[in-house]
Design brief:
The protein is α+β, with helices and mostly antiparallel strands. Helix content is 32%, strand content 26%. The longest helix is centred in the N-terminal third of the chain and has 23 residues. The N and C termini lie far apart (55 Å). The site of 6-O-phosphono-alpha-D-fructofuranose (P6P) has 11 residues, from helix 6.
C-alpha cells in the first residue's frame, strides 16, 4: 500500500510535465530517437532491479539467456533504436564499431550501455550514457554537432538527465514505476542551468597523480582548501551530483603510467554536451571537450567537468601535455 501511494505522492512533488509533453514540438524523428533511449533505459532499470546480477552474469526471471548485464543492456538499446526506425547508425562502447541500423535514418547514436558495471556488484549507482548526432556518421564528428545527450542513473531512483537542441539547460526526468508493472512513466523533476564555484570534488584515475605532477598539486589544493571528496567510481553518478548540487568539479586525468581511460565518443563527448548545456564547463586540459574531433571509436581523453573557476584551475595546473597521454 505504501508503494502504491508512492507514485501519487511522488507525482504531486514533481513539476508534473510528462516526457511526452516536454518533447512535444521537437523534431518528430528526434523525439522518436530520444523516446527509444528512454524506453530502453526503463527496460534496463527493470532488468537490473528484478534480476540477480553481479559483475559477470545476469540471470533474470524471464528466461533470457544468461548474459552479462552490460551485454543485456547493449542488446536492449540496439533493439529499441532499430525499432524506432529513425536511427541510421549506432555504436556502443561494448561493440566499438559503427553499425548500420536503418538505411536513410535521420540520426546516429553512440552509447555506453552500462557505465560502471565493475561496481554493480557493490550496488553503487551505474548508468547509461548516450549522444545523438544528425546524419549517419559518428566517426569524424565533434560534440558541437550533438543534438541530444543523456545520462541515465540506475540508483535508488531511476532518472535521466537529458539535454537537447531547442531546450535551454539540462532536464531531470524521474521514472515513476510501481514495479508490479513494467509501464512506469517519466515525469520532469528538475532543470539545471548553472554549476557555481563550490568545494565538492570527484577526482578520478588517482593513480595518475603518481607521475602527473600537476594532478598531484591539484589534489593537494583540494585537500588544503578542504573540498568535500565525493567519488564513487561511477562516472554518471559522480558527474550528475555536480549538476544536482549545482557546484564542484569532476576530473579523470591521465599520465604516462595511467593512460586516459574515458571514451570520447561514448562518455566524454555526450556528458560534456549535457554539462555545458547545464551551464558547466568541460575541458580535456586545453579546451572544451566538444571541440575534439572523433578520429576513431576507440578514442579516449582526459576530462574535467565543473564550474568555470575549477575547470580553469584544471587547465592551468594539469593542462594537456603530450607526454601525459
Ligand atoms: P577510476 C567506470 O569503470 C569508469 O569507466 C567510469 O564510470 C568512472 O568514472 C571511471 O571508470 C573510474 O575510473 O580510474 O577512477 O577507477
Amino acid at each position: 500500500s505504501v508503494l502504491r501511494a508512492a507514485p501519487a505522492a511522488l507525482r504531486m512533488a514533481q513539476t508534473g510535465e510528462t516526457l511526452e509533453e516536454f518533447l512535444a514540438g521537437s523534431d518528430p524523428k528526434l523525439v522518436k530517437c530520444v523516446a527509444a533511449m528512454f524506453a530502453s533505459c526503463k527496460e534496463v532499470a527493470y532488468k537490473i532491479r528484478t534480476a540477480s546480477c553481479d559483475k559477470m552474469a545476469c540471470f533474470n526471471d524471464f528466461g533470457d539467456e544468461q548474459l552479462a548485464i552490460d551485454m543485456l543492456a547493449d542488446k536492449i538499446i540496439f533493439d529499441n533504436l532499430e525499432a524506432s526506425g529513425v536511427v541510421a547508425t549506432a555504436s556502443s562502447e561494448e561493440v566499438p564499431k559503427e553499425v548500420t541500423i536503418t538505411e536513410g535514418g535521420a540520426y546516429s547514436v553512440a552509447f555506453d550501455p552500462l557505465d560502471g558495471s565493475s561496481i554493480i556488484d557493490t550496488n553503487f549507482t551505474v548508468g547509461t550514457i548516450f549522444g545523438v548526432w544528425p546524419g549517419d556518421k559518428l566517426v569524424g564528428t565533434t560534440g558541437r554537432e550533438l543534438v541530444a545527450g543523456g545520462m541515465v542513473l540506475y540508483g535508488p531512483r531511476t532518472t535521466v538527465t537529458l539535454a537537447m537542441e531547442g531546450k535551454e539547460g539540462a532536464h531531470e526526468f524521474l521514472l515513476i514505476d510501481d514495479f508490479s508493472s513494467r509501464h512506469g512513466s517519466w515525469v520532469h523533476t528538475a532543470t539545471f542551468t548553472a554549476v557555481n564555484e563550490g568545494k565538492l570534488y570527484a577526482p578520478g584515475n588517482l593513480r595518475a597523480a603518481e607521475d602527473n605532477p600537476g594532478y598531484a598539486e591539484l589534489i593537494d589544493y583540494y585537500r588544503k582548501e578542504k573540498f568535500q571528496l565525493r567519488y564513487s567510481g561511477g562516472m554518471v553518478g559522480d558527474v550528475n551530483q555536480i549538476l544536482v548540487k549545482g557546484k564542484g568539479v569532476f576530473c579523470n586525468p591521465s599520465s604516462p603510467s595511467a593512460k586516459a581511460k574515458l571514451r570520447l565518443l561514448y562518455e566524454v563527448g555526450p556528458i560534456g554536451y549535457v554539462m555545458e548545456k547545464a551551464g558547466a564547463k568541460s575541458s580535456d586540459g586545453s579546451g572544451s571537450v566538444l571541440d575534439i574531433k572523433v578520429q576513431s571509436t576507440e578514442d579516449r581523453s582526459q576530462v574535467c567537468y565543473g564550474s568555470a573557476g575549477e575547470v580553469a584551475r584544471f587547465e592551468q595546473m594539469v593542462g594537456k601535455k603530450a607526454e601525459m597521454n
